[in-house]
Amino acid sequence: MMRLMTGDAAVTLAAQEAADRTVEAGTARLFSASSEGSPIPQPGGMRFEGVVDFAQNRADLFGSPVAEGMITEGMADKIAGLPDMNPDMYISVRLATERHRTIHDGAREFSCVDDQWIEWLGETGDGARRHIDPQWPLDALFGANDDAVEVAHEPVRETDTVRCRLTLDLWRADERLPAGVTAPEGPLRRLREIPAEVWLDSSGRARRIAVAAHPSNATSAPDSWIWNVTELWDFGVAVTITPPSPDQVREIDPRSFGSSS
User: Fold this and answer.
1) Considering the chain, what percentage of its residues have pLDDT values greater than 90?
2) pLDDT of residue 239
3) Which pLDDT score is estimated for 261?
4) Which domain of life, per UniProt (predicted)?
5) pLDDT score of 128
6) Where are the alpha helices (DSSP H) in 167-260?
7) Does residue 99 contact residue 114 with C-beta atoms inside 8 Å?
8) Between 246 and 69, whose confidence is greater?
9) 37, 95, 205, 238: which one has the fewest Cβ atoms less than 10 Å from its Cβ?
């Protein structure tokens, strides 16, 4: 069983080094979920699983969006048959309600529907990942503050870990990451002290990272928070992630949803 040195300073140091140690592993398997009321993934909500290549800044995932199951079988096709249905809007309905593959390439996100790759206009570029990206919690961990405390020893996917509670400063993370880091909506002060938890293995790598998704609600009861949770395991796994080529990608402009075509 891993045992951190006595004292919050040592716990803080381990938490602050965890992001670097995790990225140094090169690759890993990744699970991502939104979790209501607990930093440990709960049933329901967004769930994606796949692999990540830290060196290439890419992830290849398959999973379900938040709304999976809210539209019954065949309903999407009925929606498509509405007289004024824009075909791009139909694709967006499919992405919002069905399991699908997504490749993250830096800040770019490509989703696949019926062998057609989709990218949203206005969300491309080489900048920081959006805060709903499955890798975003690891980016945010680069902003670990000096307040980490050890709260428990517990397994994550059968690996012994030390569970730590801390806050994250997105300004600090932004300074440490070449591409920077995006921020969810919320008061500036909250963005410098976002509630988070991290589970560290014996090598100091993050096995689970949970970040409060809405820092503006951080004064409410913790059991009402929504958490963005990322789990990592099988470090060093062989990974090859190839984003679609430009001629394979259909760009969708959400502004076109007001018209049929």
Assistant:
1) 52
2) 97
3) 46
4) Bacteria
5) 84
6) 170-176
7) no
8) 246
9) 238
The pTM score is 0.86
Condensed to tens digits (0 to 9), the pLDDT of residues 207-243 reads: 999 999 765 555 566 677 889 999 999 999 999 999 9
Cα–chain-centroid distance for residue 181?
12
Please check whether residue 124 is in contact with residue 109, taking contact to mean a CB–CB distance below 8 angstroms.
Answer: no
According to the model, what pLDDT value does residue 42 have? 84
Tokens at 214, concatenated: 């809405």
Which CATH number fits the domain 8-258, given the four candidates 2.50.20.20, 2.60.40.60, 1.10.10.10, 2.60.40.1080?
Answer: 2.50.20.20
Phi, psi dihedrals of residue 12, rounded to the nearest 5°: -60, -45
- How far apart (Å, rounded) are the C-alpha atoms in residues 59 and 105? 7
As a whole number of angstroms, the distance between CA 64 and CA 61 comes to 10
Whether pLDDT at 62 is above 70: yes
For the chain, the structural domain boundaries read 8-258
Tokens of 184: 């969810």
Q: In angstroms, what CA-CA distances link 210 with 78, 130, 174, 248, 260?
A: 38, 16, 18, 34, 41
Q: What are phi and psi of 95, to 5 degrees?
A: -65, -30
Could you tell me what percentage of the chain is helix, strand and coil, using 3-state DSSP and rounding each to the nearest 5? 25, 35, 45
